[in-house]
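pls design
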Protein backbone atom coordinates (compact mmCIF):
# COMPACT_ATOMS: atom_id res chain seq x y z
CA UNK A 1 0.00 0.00 0.00
CA UNK A 2 1.22 3.53 -0.75
CA UNK A 3 2.08 5.96 2.06
CA UNK A 4 -0.70 7.67 3.98
CA UNK A 5 -1.77 11.09 2.65
CA UNK A 6 -1.10 14.13 4.79
CA UNK A 7 -4.47 15.84 4.24
CA UNK A 8 -7.71 14.51 5.63
CA UNK A 9 -9.71 13.92 2.48
CA UNK A 10 -9.89 14.22 -1.27
CA UNK A 11 -12.42 17.00 -0.84
CA UNK A 12 -9.99 18.97 1.30
CA UNK A 13 -7.24 18.64 -1.30
CA UNK A 14 -9.48 19.57 -4.22
CA UNK A 15 -11.45 22.37 -2.51
CA UNK A 16 -9.24 25.31 -3.58
CA UNK A 17 -9.06 23.99 -7.14
CA UNK A 18 -12.83 23.46 -7.18
CA UNK A 19 -13.37 27.07 -6.13
CA UNK A 20 -10.98 28.29 -8.78
CA UNK A 21 -12.68 26.15 -11.42
CA UNK A 22 -16.11 27.41 -10.39
CA UNK A 23 -14.94 31.01 -10.64
CA UNK A 24 -13.45 30.49 -14.08
CA UNK A 25 -16.48 28.58 -15.36
CA UNK A 26 -18.78 31.30 -14.05
CA UNK A 27 -16.67 33.91 -15.84
CA UNK A 28 -16.19 32.10 -19.15
CA UNK A 29 -19.43 30.16 -19.75
CA UNK A 30 -21.22 30.90 -21.91
CA UNK A 31 -19.71 33.30 -24.43
CA UNK A 32 -21.58 36.54 -25.26
CA UNK A 33 -24.62 36.35 -27.51
CA UNK A 34 -26.01 32.99 -26.34
CA UNK A 35 -29.83 32.81 -26.08
CA UNK A 36 -31.05 33.01 -22.51
CA UNK A 37 -32.60 29.53 -22.44
CA UNK A 38 -29.42 27.91 -23.74
CA UNK A 39 -27.27 29.98 -21.38
CA UNK A 40 -29.34 28.84 -18.41
CA UNK A 41 -29.03 25.19 -19.42
CA UNK A 42 -25.28 25.44 -20.04
CA UNK A 43 -24.65 27.01 -16.67
CA UNK A 44 -26.87 24.46 -14.92
CA UNK A 45 -24.72 21.70 -16.39
CA UNK A 46 -21.33 23.17 -15.47
CA UNK A 47 -21.82 25.16 -12.24
CA UNK A 48 -22.58 24.17 -8.68
CA UNK A 49 -21.20 20.68 -8.34
CA UNK A 50 -18.59 18.08 -9.07
CA UNK A 51 -15.14 17.31 -7.72
CA UNK A 52 -13.42 19.36 -10.49
CA UNK A 53 -10.76 16.65 -10.64
CA UNK A 54 -9.69 17.38 -14.22
CA UNK A 55 -9.12 21.13 -13.77
CA UNK A 56 -7.23 20.32 -10.57
CA UNK A 57 -4.98 17.95 -12.50
CA UNK A 58 -4.24 20.69 -15.06
CA UNK A 59 -3.16 23.13 -12.34
CA UNK A 60 -1.30 20.52 -10.29
CA UNK A 61 0.60 19.24 -13.33
CA UNK A 62 1.51 22.80 -14.33
CA UNK A 63 2.90 23.36 -10.83
CA UNK A 64 4.76 20.02 -10.94
CA UNK A 65 6.41 21.08 -14.20
CA UNK A 66 7.45 24.47 -12.82
CA UNK A 67 4.61 26.56 -14.23
CA UNK A 68 3.23 29.90 -13.08
CA UNK A 69 0.26 29.49 -10.73
CA UNK A 70 -1.47 32.52 -12.30
CA UNK A 71 -0.98 31.43 -15.93
CA UNK A 72 -4.16 32.37 -17.86
CA UNK A 73 -3.46 29.66 -20.44
CA UNK A 74 -3.58 27.06 -17.67
CA UNK A 75 -6.93 28.52 -16.58
CA UNK A 76 -8.25 28.14 -20.12
CA UNK A 77 -6.91 24.59 -20.31
CA UNK A 78 -8.55 23.72 -16.99
CA UNK A 79 -11.92 25.11 -18.05
CA UNK A 80 -11.66 23.48 -21.49
CA UNK A 81 -11.09 20.03 -20.01
CA UNK A 82 -13.93 20.46 -17.55
CA UNK A 83 -16.34 21.55 -20.29
CA UNK A 84 -15.56 18.40 -22.27
CA UNK A 85 -16.13 16.33 -19.13
CA UNK A 86 -19.45 18.08 -18.46
CA UNK A 87 -20.63 17.59 -22.04
CA UNK A 88 -19.83 13.89 -21.76
CA UNK A 89 -21.94 13.62 -18.61
CA UNK A 90 -24.88 15.41 -20.25
CA UNK A 91 -24.80 13.06 -23.23
CA UNK A 92 -24.12 9.94 -21.12
CA UNK A 93 -27.29 10.59 -19.13
CA UNK A 94 -29.53 10.80 -22.22
CA UNK A 95 -32.25 8.17 -22.73
CA UNK A 96 -30.38 6.70 -25.71
CA UNK A 97 -27.25 6.25 -23.56
CA UNK A 98 -27.43 5.51 -19.81
CA UNK A 99 -30.93 6.95 -19.37
CA UNK A 100 -30.17 8.40 -15.94
CA UNK A 101 -32.22 10.92 -14.02
CA UNK A 102 -29.75 12.05 -11.32
CA UNK A 103 -26.37 13.78 -11.68
CA UNK A 104 -24.45 15.59 -8.93
CA UNK A 105 -27.51 15.22 -6.73
CA UNK A 106 -29.79 17.09 -9.17
CA UNK A 107 -32.05 16.16 -12.10
CA UNK A 108 -30.06 15.42 -15.23
CA UNK A 109 -30.10 17.90 -18.09
CA UNK A 110 -32.67 16.10 -20.23
CA UNK A 111 -34.99 15.76 -17.23
CA UNK A 112 -34.63 19.44 -16.38
CA UNK A 113 -34.63 20.97 -19.87
CA UNK A 114 -35.79 18.29 -22.30
CA UNK A 115 -33.83 15.92 -24.51
CA UNK A 116 -33.32 18.31 -27.44
CA UNK A 117 -31.87 21.03 -25.23
CA UNK A 118 -29.60 18.52 -23.47
CA UNK A 119 -28.14 17.42 -26.81
CA UNK A 120 -27.59 21.03 -27.85
CA UNK A 121 -26.04 21.93 -24.48
CA UNK A 122 -23.49 19.15 -25.00
CA UNK A 123 -22.70 20.50 -28.46
CA UNK A 124 -22.35 24.03 -27.07
CA UNK A 125 -19.97 22.94 -24.30
CA UNK A 126 -17.68 21.16 -26.76
CA UNK A 127 -17.38 24.14 -29.06
CA UNK A 128 -16.88 26.54 -26.15
CA UNK A 129 -14.05 24.34 -24.84
CA UNK A 130 -12.09 24.54 -28.08
CA UNK A 131 -12.83 28.23 -28.49
CA UNK A 132 -11.25 28.88 -25.11
CA UNK A 133 -8.14 26.87 -25.96
CA UNK A 134 -7.75 28.73 -29.24
CA UNK A 135 -7.49 31.95 -27.21
CA UNK A 136 -4.62 30.69 -25.04
CA UNK A 137 -1.05 31.93 -25.45
CA UNK A 138 -0.12 31.38 -29.10
CA UNK A 139 2.98 29.45 -28.04
CA UNK A 140 0.80 26.63 -26.62
CA UNK A 141 -2.70 27.10 -28.05
CA UNK A 142 -2.35 24.69 -30.97
CA UNK A 143 -0.77 22.02 -28.79
CA UNK A 144 -3.58 22.36 -26.23
CA UNK A 145 -6.27 22.05 -28.91
CA UNK A 146 -4.58 18.98 -30.39
CA UNK A 147 -4.13 17.32 -26.99
CA UNK A 148 -7.76 17.74 -25.97
CA UNK A 149 -9.06 16.73 -29.41
CA UNK A 150 -7.10 13.45 -29.27
CA UNK A 151 -8.32 12.64 -25.79
CA UNK A 152 -11.97 13.52 -26.39
CA UNK A 153 -12.23 12.20 -29.93
CA UNK A 154 -13.07 9.00 -31.74
CA UNK A 155 -9.88 7.23 -30.66
CA UNK A 156 -10.18 8.45 -27.06
CA UNK A 157 -13.17 9.15 -24.83
CA UNK A 158 -15.78 8.51 -27.52
CA UNK A 159 -14.18 5.16 -28.35
CA UNK A 160 -14.45 4.27 -24.69
CA UNK A 161 -18.13 5.16 -24.65
CA UNK A 162 -18.78 3.15 -27.80
CA UNK A 163 -17.06 0.14 -26.24
CA UNK A 164 -18.84 0.67 -22.92
CA UNK A 165 -22.17 0.44 -24.72
CA UNK A 166 -21.13 -2.70 -26.63
CA UNK A 167 -21.33 -0.89 -29.96
CA UNK A 168 -17.95 -2.26 -31.06
CA UNK A 169 -15.94 -5.39 -30.43
CA UNK A 170 -13.37 -5.42 -27.61
CA UNK A 171 -11.51 -8.31 -25.97
CA UNK A 172 -13.11 -10.26 -23.14
CA UNK A 173 -11.93 -10.07 -19.55
CA UNK A 174 -9.33 -7.72 -18.13
CA UNK A 175 -7.99 -6.64 -21.55
CA UNK A 176 -11.39 -5.42 -22.65
CA UNK A 177 -11.95 -3.68 -19.35
CA UNK A 178 -8.64 -1.84 -19.69
CA UNK A 179 -9.55 -0.84 -23.27
CA UNK A 180 -12.68 0.85 -21.95
CA UNK A 181 -11.06 2.45 -18.90
CA UNK A 182 -8.08 3.86 -20.78
CA UNK A 183 -10.38 5.63 -23.21
CA UNK A 184 -13.59 6.36 -21.36
CA UNK A 185 -11.93 7.88 -18.29
CA UNK A 186 -8.13 7.88 -18.32
CA UNK A 187 -7.76 9.62 -21.70
CA UNK A 188 -9.21 12.91 -20.45
CA UNK A 189 -7.28 12.81 -17.17
CA UNK A 190 -4.09 12.12 -19.14
CA UNK A 191 -4.88 15.09 -21.37
CA UNK A 192 -5.46 17.31 -18.34
CA UNK A 193 -2.02 16.48 -16.95
CA UNK A 194 -0.28 16.94 -20.28
CA UNK A 195 -2.07 20.24 -20.94
CA UNK A 196 -0.96 21.56 -17.57
CA UNK A 197 2.61 20.53 -18.33
CA UNK A 198 2.42 22.09 -21.79
CA UNK A 199 1.29 25.38 -20.27
CA UNK A 200 4.38 25.21 -18.04
CA UNK A 201 6.59 24.64 -21.11
CA UNK A 202 7.65 21.31 -19.58
CA UNK A 203 10.78 19.54 -20.75
CA UNK A 204 10.44 15.94 -22.07
CA UNK A 205 11.26 14.40 -18.68
CA UNK A 206 8.53 16.32 -16.88
CA UNK A 207 5.99 15.73 -19.65
CA UNK A 208 6.67 11.99 -19.59
CA UNK A 209 6.43 11.86 -15.79
CA UNK A 210 3.03 13.56 -15.56
CA UNK A 211 1.77 11.52 -18.52
CA UNK A 212 2.61 8.20 -16.87
CA UNK A 213 1.21 9.44 -13.58
CA UNK A 214 -2.10 10.46 -15.16
CA UNK A 215 -2.48 7.25 -17.15
CA UNK A 216 -2.26 5.30 -13.90
CA UNK A 217 -4.59 7.47 -11.80
CA UNK A 218 -7.07 7.65 -14.67
CA UNK A 219 -7.48 3.90 -14.46
CA UNK A 220 -7.60 4.05 -10.66
CA UNK A 221 -10.40 6.60 -10.82
CA UNK A 222 -12.55 4.31 -12.96
CA UNK A 223 -11.74 1.20 -10.93
CA UNK A 224 -12.89 2.96 -7.77
CA UNK A 225 -15.93 4.32 -9.62
CA UNK A 226 -16.88 0.77 -10.54
CA UNK A 227 -16.52 -0.31 -6.90
CA UNK A 228 -18.64 2.60 -5.71
CA UNK A 229 -21.35 1.70 -8.22
CA UNK A 230 -21.68 -1.54 -6.24
CA UNK A 231 -21.13 -0.24 -2.70
CA UNK A 232 -22.21 3.42 -2.71
CA UNK A 233 -25.54 5.14 -2.11
CA UNK A 234 -27.26 7.86 -4.10
CA UNK A 235 -26.60 10.30 -1.26
CA UNK A 236 -22.86 9.54 -1.33
CA UNK A 237 -22.48 9.50 -5.10
CA UNK A 238 -24.91 12.18 -6.23
CA UNK A 239 -26.05 9.80 -8.97
CA UNK A 240 -27.96 6.55 -9.24
CA UNK A 241 -25.92 3.64 -7.85
CA UNK A 242 -26.07 0.17 -9.38
CA UNK A 243 -26.89 1.46 -12.86
CA UNK A 244 -23.86 -0.11 -14.54
CA UNK A 245 -24.29 -3.46 -12.83
CA UNK A 246 -28.03 -3.44 -13.55
CA UNK A 247 -27.39 -2.74 -17.22
CA UNK A 248 -24.90 -5.60 -17.46
CA UNK A 249 -22.03 -3.26 -18.29
CA UNK A 250 -18.37 -4.29 -18.29
CA UNK A 251 -17.28 -3.10 -14.83
CA UNK A 252 -14.21 -3.95 -12.81
CA UNK A 253 -16.30 -5.42 -10.01
CA UNK A 254 -18.03 -7.75 -12.47
CA UNK A 255 -14.94 -8.72 -14.50
CA UNK A 256 -12.25 -8.86 -11.80
CA UNK A 257 -14.19 -9.14 -8.56
CA UNK A 258 -14.13 -6.63 -5.72
CA UNK A 259 -10.89 -7.74 -4.01
CA UNK A 260 -8.86 -8.03 -7.21
CA UNK A 261 -10.13 -4.60 -8.28
CA UNK A 262 -8.97 -3.09 -4.99
CA UNK A 263 -5.53 -4.68 -5.31
CA UNK A 264 -5.16 -3.43 -8.88
CA UNK A 265 -6.16 0.10 -7.83
CA UNK A 266 -3.51 0.01 -5.08
CA UNK A 267 -0.81 -1.18 -7.50
CA UNK A 268 -1.65 1.47 -10.08
CA UNK A 269 -1.54 4.11 -7.34
CA UNK A 270 1.94 2.94 -6.41
CA UNK A 271 2.99 3.17 -10.07
CA UNK A 272 1.57 6.70 -10.30
CA UNK A 273 3.58 7.90 -7.33
CA UNK A 274 6.77 6.26 -8.63
CA UNK A 275 6.28 7.94 -12.04
CA UNK A 276 6.71 11.36 -10.40
CA UNK A 277 10.12 10.60 -8.84
CA UNK A 278 12.13 12.40 -11.59
CA UNK A 279 10.41 15.67 -10.61
CA UNK A 280 11.61 15.71 -7.01
CA UNK A 281 9.45 17.60 -4.51
CA UNK A 282 7.46 19.75 -6.97
CA UNK A 283 4.61 17.28 -7.60
CA UNK A 284 3.64 16.99 -3.92
CA UNK A 285 -0.03 17.72 -4.62
CA UNK A 286 -0.15 15.15 -7.41
CA UNK A 287 1.21 12.53 -5.01
CA UNK A 288 -1.44 13.45 -2.46
CA UNK A 289 -4.07 13.22 -5.16
CA UNK A 290 -3.04 9.69 -6.06
CA UNK A 291 -3.08 8.54 -2.45
CA UNK A 292 -6.52 10.00 -1.82
CA UNK A 293 -8.21 8.98 -5.07
CA UNK A 294 -7.77 5.29 -4.35
CA UNK A 295 -9.71 5.57 -1.08
CA UNK A 296 -12.44 8.00 -2.11
CA UNK A 297 -16.03 7.25 -1.07
CA UNK A 298 -17.92 9.33 -3.64
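designed seq:
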Amino acid sequence: MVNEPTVASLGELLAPYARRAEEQLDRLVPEPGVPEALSEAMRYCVLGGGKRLRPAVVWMASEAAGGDEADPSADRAAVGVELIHCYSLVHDDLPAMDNDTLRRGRPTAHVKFGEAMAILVGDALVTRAFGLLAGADEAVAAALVAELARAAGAAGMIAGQVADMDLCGVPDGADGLRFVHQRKTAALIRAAARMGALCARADPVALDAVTRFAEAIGEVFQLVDDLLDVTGTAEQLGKTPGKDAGAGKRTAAAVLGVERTRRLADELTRQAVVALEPLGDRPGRLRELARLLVRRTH
